[in-house]
């Protein structure tokens, strides 16, 4: 997966964007929706009761709060705060490489083992990284003819 990390764009207090000198911008599901819907031939719907963004009939990103079972599987570790977004990756090999040294805010859970998707804590990443993750997820699910003419993939290797 070629999602760039851009620590130079992160705020001095963490990886969130800054709109004003003291205002830290934390990304929301609305930010994810805006970026996802800007991609070609994307529609929004629901799947399992959560907002999902589709291309070519395939969900490539969706809201994904942790279930009670997910929280139990954390083994006493506190659950992540803030909104979570799941994004598809091209395949399990790409996921494995990404999870070897995940960008800050990216993680995996037991429920996703064996499934080509990862979770993102929206409040811990900047908009550039979110956009890159959504573009990669879009390419993973878009029909080949659409993907060939779609937005360019990020050029930098994540991690």
Written account of the structure:
The chain has 159 residues and is α+β, with helices and mostly antiparallel strands. It has one domain (7-148): Aspartate Aminotransferase, domain 1. Helices cover 28% and strands 21% of the residues. It is built from five helices and eight strands; from the N terminus they run ββαβββαβαββαα. The protein has helices at residues 29-37, 68-73, 92-100, 127-141, 144-148; strands at residues 17-18, 24-25, 42-47, 50-55, 58-63, 84-88, 106-107, 117-121. Strand 3 and strand 4 (50-55) form a beta hairpin. Helix 1 (29-37) packs across helix 4. It is globular.
As a percent range, the share of strand residues is 15-25%
Regarding quaternary structure, what we see is single chain
N-to-C order of helices and strands: EEHEEEHEHEEHH
Overall SS class: alpha+beta
CATH architecture: Alpha-Beta Complex
Q: What's the CATH topology label?
A: Aspartate Aminotransferase, domain 1
Describe the main β-sheet briefly: 6 strands, antiparallel
Tell me the helix content.
Answer: 25-40%
Number of domains: 1
**CA-based gyration radius:** 15 Å
Uncertain runs are: 4-15
- Apparent shape: globular
Number of strands: 8
* Text of the CATH class: Alpha Beta
Could you give the distance between the termini? Answer: 10 Å
Q: How many helices in DSSP terms?
A: 5
Identify the strand order in the major beta sheet: 3-4-5-6-8-7
How much is the average pLDDT? 86
């Amino acid at each position: 997966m070629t999602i760039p990390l851009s620590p130079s764009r992160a705020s001095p207090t963490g990886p969130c964007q800054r709109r004003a000198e003291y205002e830290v911008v934390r990304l929301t599901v609305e930010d994810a929706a805006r970026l996802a819907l800007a991609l070609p031939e994307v529609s929004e719907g629901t799947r399992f009761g959560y907002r999902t963004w589709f291309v070519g009939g395939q969900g490539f990103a969706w809201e994904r709060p942790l279930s009670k079972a997910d929280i139990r599987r954390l083994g006493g570790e506190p659950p992540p705060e803030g909104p979570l977004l799941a994004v598809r990756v091209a395949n399990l090999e790409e996921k494995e490489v990404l999870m070897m040294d995940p960008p800050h805010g990216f993680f995996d859970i037991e429920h996703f083992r064996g499934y080509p998707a990862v979770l993102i804590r929206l409040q811990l990443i900047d908009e550039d990284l979110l956009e890159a993750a959504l573009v990669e997820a879009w390419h993973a699910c878009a029909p080949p003819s659409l993907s060939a003419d779609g937005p360019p993939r990020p050029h930098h290797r994540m991690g």
